[in-house]
Amino acid sequence: MKSMTKLMVVAMLLVAALVVAPVAARTVYPGDNIYVGEENIQFDGVSGVYSNVRYVHLSGSFNDWNIDNTILTDANGNISELTASTVGTKTGTYYVIASGLSQNVSRYVNIEYPKVELDVVLDTARSDSVNGKSVTRDTTIAFKLQDNIVFNGTPQPTIKIEVTMPGGGTTTYFGNQSLQSLSTTGGVQYCGNINLSGYEAGTYTAQAKWPSGSDFYGKGFDSNTVSFDVTTKAVSLTASKDSVVRGKSFSVTITGESKAPYILLVKKVGGLTSDEKYPLIAPGQTGVYNVTKNDYDDLKFGGGNTSDAVSRYVNENAPGLNYTQAWIETTAGGTRTVQFNTTTATDDRQFTIRVQDVRDATKYDEVKVRVEKGAVTITAAGTGTYYIGEEITLEGTCTEGDKVYLFITGPNLPSDGANPLKPGEPVIDRYGNLNFLVVDVEPDDTWSEKWNTADIEGTLDAGGYTIYAVSAPVDKSDLSDAEYDTISIQLRSGFISATSSGAVVAKGDDLKLTGVAQGDPSEVYIWIFGKNYYGEPGKLKVRPETVEDDGTFEFELKGGDTKDLAAGQYFVVIQHPMMNGKADITANESYILGSPESGFSPVKITGLQASAAANALISALDSPNIDDTYVKLTFVVEEPQIFINPIGDVPAGSTFTISGTTNLAVGDTLNVEVTSAAFTPTGKGEEAGFASVARTTQVKAGDGVNTWSVEIDGSAFKPDQYIVKVECIETDTTATANFNVVEARPTTQPPVSPTETVTTTTTATTTTVPPTETETPGFGALLALAGLGAVAYLVLRRD
After folding, report:
1. DSSP state letters, 302-346
2. Alpha-carbon distance 171 to 150, whole Å?
């Protein structure tokens, strides 16, 4: 019994000894690599000799010796486990130092994180990854494993590749290859010749993992995950669209074996013998090789010839035309997308696209794509009626191509259409030269063109016109071969109208000339003539004025200018540049000048009287080669005057109105002061007899003459004589008048008997003021417009 007990104690001591016995350390030497996650590391030549052994990382050079990270070891210089927390981001060179051990640049190790990367590639083309792609069962693949693990003088650690199958099971034996114990190499290795025959269709994933027992096991250092799909169908074809409008493109996608050759073709259609009638394979595509002859037996592709059956089929069913068939090589993922283009010449019908295996006539797939006619639309912004010189926005849609061709028809234009910017030229001349206004169609099938009628070469008279938008460069005689739309427009000659803010302007008042200039001019030009006045004292001047987008303009002659004008009649001509958008009659300080192409000779007008100067300008504007038009009007400058209507006697304590007339401008402000004329000294206890009231009012438009009025509260007025002073600040004009305030007399009405009726009759008296006769100056066509107080408002239109 005692011997049995002794045996058990000895056994327990042996077990304890085994538990505490240290695992053999990996001895590393100067310059070796150490990886985060490793356990039991011993630096050679340190253990048992020195104390306080440690590894240090420097932020700079060895000579600077700036330590930014320290890794401590045990008493024997061992590192039981190199953890990520002790290394952090400080990887690279670590120097080994200890108490009593001098610093030595050659005593170092390299500390790195273990890295393992996995990819899945074609075994026959190992640069082609199939990660995330599809392969067929006929494809042989390989796993590409890359690591950075290098153990000097020590066996390399092993790693395994674990494959998860579509059903959820995992394996390290896949495609007749063992993936269980793969030694790391510090570089790239391939586990190839993996055969997928017999494997079920579906998605497979794979990952390189550290096995249990490895220092790196379970520490997050496994590789990335890759995946691939195994398909069973030999070849398939899909189209991006079931139907496409002519002029647009579509694509087909082939799915088959990886890096395999196929024939792609549009099946022949009876009666279509021209390649432009078919959808055509876009040239220059990667992995697409155009075939222009039918003898496929002579074309080697992918290392082999076509089978006889495939060759016969292609010869019988392919159109044999350029870019209607091609050799296709799939990608590593077993796919290839090929673009087909259509044009407005492509026949509108259904086409069959076929992909054919090169060696096996039974392996093919087909899709059908219908090519349809597109459509073209055109609209014009606005009402459809425009003035020559305006910019007209033409816009619409086109689903029949990437360009729209515009032409115009109308009175005496080429019968089959003319270029809208060159209306005298046909869009297709007798030599077949094209002269369309061509507009690009945007990716969203819209198009837009700003047609500036001021930029037309030649002339375009007022009238009705039709504008065509066509999908192909054909004229009116050949519209059956294209899609088109039309719009009718009316063009009118530009014109100008204007009026002044008043027929009479007082010196110092502003004068406004406003009007409308149709035809989209940027400016109009203001000419003003008066006695010895040609726009400025002593010299000729024309004033440009901007025309707004709505055709309106406004010119203001400021009070500072009218203040210096002599009293009398003035003549105004407002010039419209018309269709060419520029003034054909201009001026220097003495002469009116014509544009170079007008043929107009300069005329000096600064020596002419006002009406003669105005008539000379009008004669110039009426010249045959001048397309400008104009409007004429007059105004009269007078000394500023304010008139006060008779006031009469005003009862004390009443409210009354003071009014009058004036030639001042509407809106001018008048200050009206009413003050007592009395000035009698009074005692301290007496009420002063002096009283005053001040009011402001504005000039208002009247019937033939402007008026003003102000209501005065006379409740504080005592019987006396009062003075009224009316003053205009703008023109420094003053008028005065007197009136009396009298004692108020009560009015007593006699009693009215119930049977009596009192009738009051008021007789209205009308005073007629005869018109003032004014001599009419000579102003040509202005004779009927030059009367004092009348505004000449005449619109002249040039046909």
Report:
1. TTBPPPHHHHHHHHHHS---TTSEEEEE--TTSEEEEEEE--TTS
2. 27
- Residue 6 has what DSSP assignment? H
Q: How many CB atoms lie within 10 A of CB 533?
A: 21
* Exposure of 473 in the CB half-sphere (CA atoms within 13 A): 15
Q: What would the pLDDT profile of 445-499 be if each residue is shown by its tens digit?
A: 999 999 988 888 777 888 999 999 999 999 999 998 789 999 999 998 888 899 9
Give 231's Cβ-side CA count (13 Å radius): 17
Residue 419 CB neighbours (<10 A): 22
Write out the two tokens for 317.
């069913």
C-alpha to C-alpha distance for 372 and 350, rounded to whole angstroms: 9
In the chain, the domains with their CATH numbers are: 26-112 (no CATH), 116-231 (2.60.40.1930), 236-372 (2.60.40.1930), 379-472 (no CATH), 495-638 (2.60.40.1930), 642-679+690-742 (2.60.40.10)
Count of residues in the chain: 799
- How far from 405 is each of 299, 412, 436, 645, CA to CA, in Å? 43, 21, 6, 73
pLDDT tens for each residue of 666-700:
888 899 999 988 755 555 555 555 678 989 999 89
Q: What are phi and psi of 50, to 5 degrees?
A: -120, 165
Structure tokens at 567: 């009293």
Residues 775-791 as b/e (b if ≥16 CB within 10 A, e otherwise) read: eebebeebeebbbbbbb
Quote the radius of gyration of the chain (alpha carbons, Å): 52
Interatomic CA distance for residues 174 and 226, integer angstroms: 15
Q: Are 532 and 567 in contact (CB under 8 A)?
A: no
**Beta strands at 542-546 and 280-281: parallel, antiparallel or unpaired:** unpaired
Residue 347 CB coordination number (10 Å): 17
Whole-model pTM? 0.49
Angstrom distances, CA of residue 706 to CA of 154, 338, 699, 709, 731:
116, 84, 7, 11, 15
Q: What CA–CA distance (Å, rounded) separates 221 from 194?
A: 25
Three-class HEC string of 203-266: EEEEEEECCCCCCCCCCCCCCCEEEEEEECCCCEEEECCCEEECCCEEEEEEECCCCCEEEEEE
CB 792 within 8 A of CB 634: yes
Gap between the Cα atoms of 619 and 629, Å rounded: 11
Cα four-point dihedral sign 674, 723, 729, 642: positive
**What whole-number distance in Å separates Cα of residue 94 and Cα of residue 54?**
9
